Amino acid sequence: MDGGGGKRFSTDIALIGERIARVGDCSGLEARQRIDARALVLAPGFIDVHAHSEQRWFEPRSSAGSLAQGITTAIEGACNRSFLAEQAADLRGSLRLNLALVAPAQREEIERGACGISVRFGAGAPSEEALRVAKNAGIPLVVHLRDRERDLLAALDEAIALARRTEMALHISHLSYAYGEDRALVHVALERLDAERGRGMPISCDLFPYIADDEPLGALFPPAMRALPRSDETTLAAMLHARLQYGERWGRISLRAVRDERGIAELGASIEAIAARRRLSPERTALALLEELGAETPLLHRCLNEDDVAAVLSAEFACIGIADASYPFTEDPFRLAHPRAFGSFPRLFARFVRMRRTLTFEEAVRRCSALPARIFGLRDRGEIREGAFADLVLFDERAIADTATYERPAQAPAGIHGVFVNGSAVYGAGMGEIAYPGRILERP
After folding, report:
1. Residue among 363, 343, 409, 51 at smallest CA distance from 206
2. What is the rounded distance in angstroms from the CA atom of residue 265 to the CA atom of residue 344?
3. Which keywords does UniProt give here (predicted)?
4. What is the rounded distance in angstroms from the CA atom of residue 277 to the CA atom of residue 286?
């Protein structure tokens, strides 16, 4: 499946160095190694359009979680994030660029190769100069919507208005409708985007294929609480406000990190279950956790509807972004990663291709490769063709699946037999680890 979305075909592929040298009969060529992959599918390497490993650049880390699911290219810095944020107090409108090497939105950084410019509404006004330079560079405007809860359509209109004013291509980060009761709203949003596309505006979006999002513990509380004493009546009133907002959802919000072994029993448990264990109300339990663990403590919130996720994935302009960092397979005993960091791309094929039939295999491969490469102007990637970089994934279409769960996220996917980055084999089934660059795959 060459990434273009067309019909699959059988052929040989020859690699020389970092590139694909031939697509066609290679039986007469000499080779240092031959891989018999007749029972498998070869696809372009998957492109994660919404990676967040910029959060972990200065920590010892591995790209194992991404490589094992077939990701060979990651676009960093969406959602207005940058590893240099603390060094850039004046961010010229709180803009960040999508490539990892840059922080403030300045002309020279765009010219150095940024593949998009990220805007988060509510975090400051965009720099007009940065937008002008980005437009001239032909890179897209990547927007984190201001509100995916109560006011999705208004937030969408805000993003469209900015793209129309700047005459830039628009990419919506993790398009979804959280906590919503109106099941038609996502379809209305997609129709609105289709209408703009019909008028000539280039629009795309991304989403991770799970119903659970993540958020920090502090997001449960109204902003005013941060300046209040923790024990007065005003604080209790604010907690009641939180109850009105979250209602019965306490059972769908779980704790992803604890401080030490004393909190292990609560790791992965819902706020509702922790409250029952502590014999407190969910509100008082959430407040106690805030005091004990801090506002940045990660939560897992099952706030999306899978039918909505499928609706977004059915749009021809939607691709996949894990919205997370890449992690090693060594589990942190006091912290749970989101399973999307280990299984997003295989889950697309297992759940939304084989099970729900939202997409065909060929179309799903296009969404993972050629489509994101075109959106972000990644030359010579996202396709299997002569001269392109040899970023490749070898998988069994009957077996490819995510095995990561909310309780045990650090699990390698099934059905992926090999991953190549720039012609080097970096992952293979049965290795049990990420290979060193240049390590040769055993024959499947």
Report:
1. 51
2. 27
3. Hydrolase
4. 13
Residue keyed to tokens 């939304």: 352
Specify the pTM.
0.87
Question: For residue 412, what pLDDT is reported?
Answer: 92
pLDDT tens-place string over residues 90-112: 323 222 333 333 334 455 656 66
Q: For residues 422 and 245, what is the distance between their CA atoms, to the nearest angstrom?
A: 48
- List domains and CATH numbers for the chain: 13-24+33-78+173-211+304-428 (3.20.20.140), 214-302 (no CATH)
CB 206 within 8 A of CB 321: yes
3-state secondary structure of 152: helix
| 61 neighbors 384 (Cβ within 8 angstroms) | no
C-alpha span between 238 and 220 (Å, rounded): 10
Over residues 317-331, the pLDDT tens digits come to 999 999 998 888 887
Residue 264 class from Cβ within 10 Å (0-12 exposed, 13-18 middle, 19+ buried)? exposed
Strand duo 203-207 + 170-172: pairing: parallel
What DSSP character marks residue 265?
G
Question: Taking the alpha carbons of 384, 386, 389, 394 in that order, is the dihedral positive or negative?
Answer: positive
pLDDT at 417: 92
Question: What whole-number distance in Å separates Cα of residue 306 and Cα of residue 313?
Answer: 10
Per the structure block, which two tokens stand in for 56? 């972990």
Say which range, 29-43, 159-173, 234-248, 324-338, has the weakest mean pLDDT. Answer: 234-248
pLDDT level of residue 177 (50, 70, 90 thresholds): confident
pLDDT score of 243 more than 90: no
Task: With beta carbons less than 8 A apart as the criterion, state whether 416 and 51 touch.
Answer: no
DSSP 3-state helix, strand, coil percentages of the chain (rounded to 5)?
35, 20, 50
Q: How far apart are alpha carbons 4 and 6 in whole angstroms?
A: 6
Question: 149: closest CA among 105, 209, 201, 215?
Answer: 215
Q: To the nearest 10°, the Cα dihedral for 288, 294, 295, 300? A: -80
How far, in Å, CA of 358 to CA of 320, rounded?
Answer: 14
